[in-house]
Amino acid sequence: MSTRQQQAREDARPEVHARPGRFEADAVMGVVAREWILYGQSWRATTFAAVVEPTLYLLCFGFGMGALVGTLAGYSYIDFLGTGIVAVSVLFQSMMPAVINTFIKRRFLHTYEGILAAPVDVRELVTGEALWLAMRSGVYGCVPLLVAMGFGLRPGPGMLLVPFIAFLAGFAFALFGIWISAVITSVRSMDYVFSGLFTPLFLVAGTFFPLTGLPGWVQNAAMVNPLYHAVELIRGAVFGGLGAGQALVHVGVLLGFIVLMWFLAGFQMRRRVVS
Amino acid sequence: MSSRDTSAVPALLLRGIVKRFGSLTAVDGLDLEVPQGIVLGLLGPNGAGKSTTMKMLTAQSVADEGEIRILGHEVPAESKWARARMGVVPQHDNLDEELTVEQNLRMFSYLYRVPRRQRKEAIARTMRLAQLGDRGATLVDDLSGGMRRRLLIVRALLHRPELVLMDEPTVGLDPQVRQDLWSAISALRDEGVTVLMSTHYIEEAERLSDEVALMARGRVVERGTPADLVAKYAGATVEEYLPDEEGVDAFERLVHSHGFTTRRTGTTVSVLRAEELPQSLRDRLDVPLRRASNLEDVFVTLTGESVE
């Protein structure tokens, strides 16, 4: 090989910054960049779903139930619902694709075999996948608020916090979903996940109705539902009335859930992709 | 420069590798050293442990025993460094079908950390290499089987790796398409890239490899240039005989008693190293079909397996 060729190859070689085994932001961003390119192909369908779904919920429940309910926990029903549906949207944008897409990419498309043959490790892969879904949740989570404004929700400066809350909750639930996708062994098991886990998660979180009418044990169970804490943060940001201490507790629960799920998702995914 | 440029460091070094899956021992004491700059064909029947070995090289499988070094990096501990310097062509086509050729390559230019200002050029170069220069905007779904495979191969070359692993690169392709890929793989060698290619196509190994490592039952049973291996185990010529069906066993006994090796192919019996057959023995045999010895003769002799 000539020196020039050798030099050309040196120039094109990727810069290897990190000590091996360390967590690299570049690897994470590589995974995110991959999703971004895929999104360029699928954004129409994703956006359609993200807009139409909350609109239908607000229309049907907002007007249908709103006519019967009037006000709820001190809010007009459409306001209560509009903020609750932000959290539902986040769940649909994060946990649902995390379970389904991650499973398919791992089991059927051999996508992860390809990514992990590049200089990307399992934890970076998991973080990148979750980060992308969190970003998507942060953006699409705001759509219900915009729709609700069309139905009369009053805009306020606190609403600017909603994308960040949605991002945080989206990150948590994406990691949760990735962990589950690495636990289940067949597509059939997803039935258990969606009926047994997903549905109660978004119903028992103060999204469509306040928890106060539910039996005591269900209310207690809701306290460990991270989505409940996301809902409280969102309502607090939009309407105010949330103390700093309360807000910290809610953020703390979400962060704790993220840390736990990050370890679990990375651990379980590694068990699946490394033999 | 640092130690990574000394070509004395082998591209691959595997010592005493053992990998078990439950009660099955897939790799059983594998030793393999590959110097930089050659194409090494890892040849073996299905189940010989080739794919498991390939997976261990990307740390997607972890050996129970033994030592693996890739370009001097210890695997799995330093696997990420090794992976930054090598390209992997997987056995399963995992291209994104709903994306274009260019998008598929761009995606991996990120994963391989090709510096931003070199991405465009790297993508253009690899598309040319795959003879897909004008297909950048074509969806992978609309490519022919051969084009897809070429794209899969060059996707592993975006970051100009020093070592390329190919797991059965031409499996399931038409002969014509396979020939095209062979020239692409040869071109890599000419650039000084080390290639480890697992295959169970003998002709492929013979045509492309500087050296062949024959794998059977989880270890390398023989290693050398195709020509040396053929000379060592099958001599210069092979004679194919067609004994009566009931006479096959007797024929083999007779030839074996003179110290010659035979192999059966359907109803014919091939005598290896036939140029050394003594006239006295030859007088007792029919007129054979004579041909040059080849790697297939070696493969069958050493692994006891027939080939496709």
From TrEMBL, chain A:
Q: In its UniProt record, which GO terms are filed under biological process?
A: response to antibiotic
Alphabetical UniProt keywords = Antibiotic resistance, Cell membrane, Membrane, Transmembrane, Transmembrane helix, Transport
Q: Describe the location of the ABC transmembrane type-2 domain by residue ranges.
A: 45-272
A Gene Ontology CC term for this entry?
A: ATP-binding cassette (ABC) transporter complex
Q: From the Swiss-Prot or TrEMBL record, state where the protein is found.
A: Cell membrane; Membrane
Q: Name any one GO molecular function.
A: ABC-type transporter activity
Pfam families on file: ABC2_membrane
| Superkingdom of source | Bacteria
- PROSITE patterns tied to this protein: ABC_TM2
Report membrane topology: Multi-pass membrane protein
Its recorded name reads Transport permease protein
TrEMBL record, chain B:
- Main subcellular localisation: membrane
Which one GO biological process term can you cite for this protein? response to antibiotic
Q: Which InterPro entries match?
A: AAA+_ATPase, ABC_transporter-like_ATP-bd, ABC_transporter-like_CS, ABC_transporter_ATP-binding, P-loop_NTPase
Q: Does the keyword rRNA-binding apply?
A: no
Q: Which UniProt keywords apply?
A: Antibiotic resistance, ATP-binding, Nucleotide-binding, Transport
The UniProt entry, under Gene3D superfamilies, shows: P-loop containing nucleotide triphosphate hydrolases
**Where does the UniProt annotation locate this protein?**
Cell membrane
**Residues of the ABC transporter domain:** 12-242
Membrane topology note: Peripheral membrane protein
List cellular component terms (GO): plasma membrane
Q: Which GO terms describe its molecular function?
A: ATP binding; ATP hydrolysis activity
Q: Name one Pfam family in it.
A: ABC_tran
Stated family: Belongs to the ABC transporter superfamily.
The protein's name: Multidrug ABC transporter ATP-binding protein
Native species of this protein?
Nocardiopsis sinuspersici
Source taxonomy: Bacteria, Bacillati, Actinomycetota, Actinomycetes, Streptosporangiales
